[in-house]
Design brief:
CATH topology of the largest domain: Rossmann fold
Helix content: 25-40%
Number of strands: 12
Radius of gyration: 22 Å
CATH architecture of the largest domain: 3-Layer(aba) Sandwich
Number of helices: 8
Strand content: 15-25%
Bound molecules: flavin mononucleotide
Largest sheet: 7 strands, mixed
CATH class of the largest domain: Alpha Beta
Number of domains: 2
Order of helices and strands: EEEEHHEHEHEHEEHEHEEH
Length: 276
Amino acid sequence: MPITTTKEMPEVKLGGKTLSFVAVPMAHWPDSMVSYIPEDKLLLSNDAFGQHIASTARFNDEIEQSLLWHEAEAYYANILMPLRSAVGRAVKALDGVSIEVIAPSHGVIWRKDLGDILTKYGQWIEGYTVPKVVITYDTMWKSTKDIAYAMAEGIASEGVKCRVYCLTGNHRSDVMTDILEAKAVFVGSPTLNNHVYPSVAEFLAYMRGLKPMNKIGAGFGSYGWAGGATRFIEEQMKLAGIELIEADLDFAYKPTEEEWQKAYDFGVMVAKKVKE
Ligand SMILES: Cc1cc2nc3c(=O)[nH]c(=O)nc-3n(C[C@H](O)[C@H](O)[C@H](O)COP(=O)(O)O)c2cc1C
């Protein structure tokens, strides 16, 4: 049977409905395509605007809103973020197209207040950030945790939102979801066998692949003798595109009172910086 490609026939008339096809390669697979049905002002958006939600609710106004927005953010942060140029091209292709419903290939269908999700995508593609700090770490004996919480207390004292995630017990994708709109990211680890703690190495590899945009950050940690974890973290953060700020939060064993204060003061400084 002869096959006609959508390149040869970008529009198919089915009787009462027309299907128009637009190729959007790498949003987020090489063969990605969106389809538009002008009679219903319906966009079948493929991966864009998706969420990993399995629900009996079919539309965005039928589902709990905080869950919906969390999942839309999680989907963008963990699936589409490194492909923002392709997603941007796909969104741009919709300029001037009258859309009343967006049906992505995953999750619920957007039929109410479409402007909200379109605005969010515009912001995420541009690397929009809010004054928020994400600190993530792992620990064997809690010294690295103490540094993380000293920083967090300093940040909170300035009224800046801060989330702390231990990588034992929190999934890397949840941490990345919070990082999406955060201005600053700090990653901490104890030194284990001259290297970084395995869960932190895994997180760094994941974050690097997702190419976060418009972030400042630094590494921190605790070591016993020669150290090594904090250096490795900072190298990887740099490779992930994060602008490093001078931190000097690499402490031998349990942080002393002065070191705790240093981490707290660093948190205050970071909070002021993200409020600028
Ligand atoms: C199995 C093991 C291996 C370690 N290897 C190193 C190492 O190679 N270099 C180093 O400086 N410290 C090493 N340490 C010391 C820890 O980095 C140090 O105790 C640190 O304070 C632990 O931080 P935490 O309390 O956040 O787990 C090692 C500790 C353990 C238990």
